[in-house]
Each structure stands twice: as structure tokens, then as C-alpha cells.
């Protein structure tokens, strides 16, 4: 039975709906899978499971049966092949005992070959015959119970109980003597039913073992670039309520050369599984501390810096162009090229609000003159930027877009005397709107990867703001069979 959709469940899970989580048990990225998501996962699992049974070969069955007036007949059933399964009813339930998936009223179609030979005192010369038959298994019940545990930041999957029960089957014989049909039904009904039950339960066990192996390959951290990793180790054990499955991950950014250490988590807080009345499959929630940790990591790495030494189609980075704004600059350095060294001076302040993410960015813009191959800093202007960031789901990433709210400028230092700050303010406004904010939006467009596995995608996602959390409520779609092929290749 293909286990892949259960793996999907584990990739979007969260803390228990509307429950309190104790300190050191909660991660900063979490989510919840709803009953709609559970139904989707269950249906996908059953569909993939059915696919894995097509052309499944059952063991050969041989029996010697006594036939009245005929004698002993040796009957062999071979090439017993399952052609397909149809499911009439299925369900998935979660609770303290685990995840229970049940299929009831299923039917299965099989084909087989038969042959027999008869010898008795009435028939001194042996008689034999062969042919084919079709089998219809009816009212089949299949079920399994799973549980999940956290083992040092990785999930371990346990198969607690599983089984298959066949209530009835019918055989349609092609060829053979008239008595043979009843012999097959009487003598082989139990054997065929038992073979079907054993084959299906074996597939279930193999599928869960493969899924457990897949879980061991889940990374504890994701390398984002040369600067940062994202800690995605699981926090605490999964929580199973009567309508959801819940898992949380650490979710904080760390420097590439930094060893992850336990974090201080917020002491009791509440997260709801509600999606604003929208019937979505999953809800992935991100605490504002995730964005703060990203801000701190990139700031400490010196990555929040931009040097502008030319502007496409413009020649304003020359002291001659600034002679009316900063005349003393032109007087000291006539007709020299310039560059702007834009540096974030402290980690940005980030806070989730009821409608977006508010941020304050502290920027130092150093004016450099380029003279005879030498870079000469001549003045530094500090800019305090207040902006809002609207989030959106792009593919499987959460991306943002900054909108400038207001800003303040002041002279931090100068080697060329006092500057006319009203003129500088107008210049900074132009620089913010045409250079700095577009550059930051270009970086934000890359986005933060959301916890979903390859081969699946968020669909019709919505963003909700519930300080200090933001949440992505979404359905999930399967992109194709390539993921299953990749995983099978990886584990083979």
C-alpha cells in the first residue's frame, strides 16, 4: 500500500487546535491539518494503495479433493493475479490511540489459471484438464492504525494494528467439468480468501516500513543560501485530536556555521485551527520570531548592505549633479564620480499586526567619492524607515512586498560641513522609492520555503494575520507521479 500521502500529512502539521502548549514543547512554525485535509489524504492513500495491488501475484494453491463417483482430484490454482480493487466506503479517524484508516465493502477482481487430474478405479486412465477463471472478492474490510513519535527531532512511525478480512467471494469458471466449479468453491474459497488477506496485509506492512524510512530522511535543517539555515527539527510529539493531526517544528533561522541549540519558547499561547470560515485542508502558522531570527542572522552576517555606483540610464552619481544640493561637496571634489554605501545599521524591528507585518528599518547611507581609485567617505545620512509588508503564497513559498509608510532622515556625520537636510530629505525620498524599496522587494520575492514535500503544492492559499502569528490556509494538490518515482529510486 503506497504510504506517500501519510507523508504529506506529516509535512503540514501543527499544534492541537485551540490548545495550550507548554514551554519547550512548541515550535515557531506550525500548522494544522483539518478534517478536509484528512479526507483528501485518506482518499489519496487508498488510490495509491489500489494502484500498488494491480498485477499483484498471489501464491499458487494446490489441493487434493475427494469427489463422489469420480475419486481423488488433484487441483492446482496458479497465476492468481489481482486486477483491481473498488472501494465503496472509507474513513479516517484520529485520536489518542492513533490514526485509524478503514475501508469497508470493497470488492476485488482476480484472474487465475487452474488444472486438475483425476484417477480412480472407475477411471483407470488418468483424466486431466485446465482452463482459466475469474474471481470476485466481495465485502472486503481493510484497516490499519498508526502512531507517531518524535525521536530526537525526527518522526518515527509505528504500525500498531492492521489487517484485511474477506467476507465472500465468487468464482466464474471457463472450461472444465461441471463438477469442478463446486469443488473450487467448496475446497478453495477459504484458501483464496486467506491468500488475498495475507497479500494485502503484507503490502500494508511493507508500505509503512517504506514510509518510516522516508521519514528518517526528513532533514532537521534546510540550507537556504550561503548565509542561513532553517531549523526544521520536530518539537515534541505529534498531537492527535478527534479532528486533526498536529506537529510543530523549531522554524528559526540559524547561521550556516552555527550549531543549533534549544531555544526559549513562549510560555502558553493559543492557536486556532480556524481559517476565517474557509474550508481549507491545512493551516501553516509562522510566529513573528521566525522573521526576527532571519533578520538577526542576515544582519550579523553583514548581508544587509548594498553599494550603488551606477544607475541605469542616469548620471546622477557625480558630484557635478549634486552641486545644487550639496554645493560644498562639488567644491571639494569637482566632477568626481560617487557611490552610495547603503547599510542596515541594526536588525530591523518586525511585528505582526492584524493586517500585515510592520517593520522599522534603520539604514545608514554613506556618500563616497571616487577619486584616483580611492574611495573617500564624505558624509553619512541615517534614515529610519517605517514600512508594512504584505505577504502572499507564491508556489510553495511565502513571499512579501514592502510598502513605504514614512521615513525620517538626519545627518549622522559629515566631513564637508552641514548639509541642507530638506534637500537631502527629497533626495532620500527618491532613493527609497526608486532604489532601496525595489531592491528589498526583489529580495523578499524569493520568499521563505513552507513545509511541504516535493511533488505537492499549495493551492488557493489565503493569508491570515493573528498577532504574533501569520497563517497560510490552503488546499493541497498532487503535481504528478515523478515524486513517487524519485522516492522509490531513492530508497531502492
From TrEMBL:
Domain Lipid-binding serum glycoprotein N-terminal: 33-258
Keyword match Membrane: no
GO cellular component: extracellular space
InterPro entries registered for this protein in UniProt: Bactericidal_perm-incr_a/b_dom (IPR017943), BPI/LBP (IPR030675), BPI/LBP_pln (IPR045897), Lipid-bd_serum_glycop_C (IPR001124), Lipid-bd_serum_glycop_N (IPR017942)
Boundaries of every Lipid-binding serum glycoprotein C-terminal domain copy: 276-481
Gene3D superfamilies found in the cross-reference section: Bactericidal permeability-increasing protein, domain 1, Bactericidal permeability-increasing protein, domain 2
Protein name: BPI/LBP family protein
